[in-house]
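To close the chapter, one final illustration. This time we ask the reader to focus less on the individual chains and more on the assembly as a whole: which components sit near each other, and how the overall shape emerges from the parts.
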Amino acid sequence: MSFDAIANKTQDKSFKHQVEILLAQVCLKDQKSFENLYQVTSSKLYGLALKMIKDRDIAADILQESFSKIWHQATSYRCDLGENWAWAWMCQITRNTALDYIRRAGRRPETSLEGVSITAFNDETKQLSEQRDLHYCLAKLKPEPRKVIVLAYIHGFSHSELADKLKTPIGTLKSWIRRGLKELELCLKN
Amino acid sequence: MSKKLTLAARYQNPIIRTHLASQYALGTLTSKVQQRVTHLMLEDELLVQEVYQWQNRLEPINHHIDDVKPPQKVWRQLSETLAFKPANKTRWWQSLVVWQCATAFSLTFTLSLFMWQTDIDITTDSPLASLKGPSYLAILAPNTQLITSKSAIKEHLPELIITAYKSPQAGQSELHIQWNKNAEKKASFELDEKQNFTLWSIDKSSGKQVSLGSIISVNNKQRLTLTQWKLIKNSKELWLTRGNKETDPVVFKGECLQLSSWETS
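The assembled structure is written out below.
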């Protein structure tokens, strides 16, 4: 592993641990800890929301709603299931909130796969292959499953949206995703 | 009814469970199925574990996403919606450290005065041992290592006061847990066994972290076993973590003070 990769991994672990501690204090309804948690994580979560919803005002509403859920649901976070998993839990809440909006309101027709995804995906692939763990395992997948998994996760595309944009039968697409996730699971477990 | 049972049994299939959990974390379930999974997670512990596993597996995909500073109105509207109180200016006499020291000193002084006046020798043979006051005291302050602003620290959680009382009868020693009522803000914080908080003893000789067990709730008493009593006796610090593993985040920590001497343990 390169020096940069080690430094990034250490920084990532430190960040996740920080989030874990702050969320534990938010469980006690400590407003200051919640404010600190917001300061530490809001830029990342807003960036995440913007990848799924291009409208900045709507993404801001999504962010606000997500943090409201985090405040009210902090006690339901299961810290016993894994170490420093609070950040992943917060990301899931934000993504679910954005997905709920997309499913309710419908995605804007001008969200083109070309403009939104292909160039970014190429950059992502290059970055991803420099790191281990998930990125290493994603790099090992065939291009089609890797592409649809990353597109679905980052941009929140549904099966039918991806099938439509990639001009692929929906059955094939679902098969790519199912097989890709299975291979990821096996790779990560090893 | 039988159809409902059949559907529920279907979700016990590990392949189905993994499929639902992975697609839930990926975000490709339809709204209806996503809601169903959210509901199932309230009943199916294995499904919860799978979902958490997949959330954590896929999260690194976010690493390449750039941070974008959100509009200031988001925090403003959020704190209004959640009805947060604005921070108050504090004076020196409202400083945390001043009151910590004052509380510890006055408690120690009062106990000393009481013992001198009543001329009671604290031994385990005395029938009044349980009324003599705490043998150990720890003031656990919230973990503020990650907070750089002094004003932010002042507005943080109140201290958790833990006192241990020795009883002459075996298994009757007690641990009392309460919020510092001397703190400016009202202690309306919740801490109970459902939140999975664990108290730890840090051994004064080895520095080893040993569990004293779960904290049931605050403003409560818990019985101490002889083992737990010995751990407290040998501790230099007490820590409170959210979770029951040594590596879980430390939410409160503080030095353990001995207030009375012992001939035997």
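Chain A touches chain B through 75 residues (CB under 8 Å). The radius of gyration of chain A is 18 Å. With these observations in hand, you are ready for the problems at the end of the chapter.
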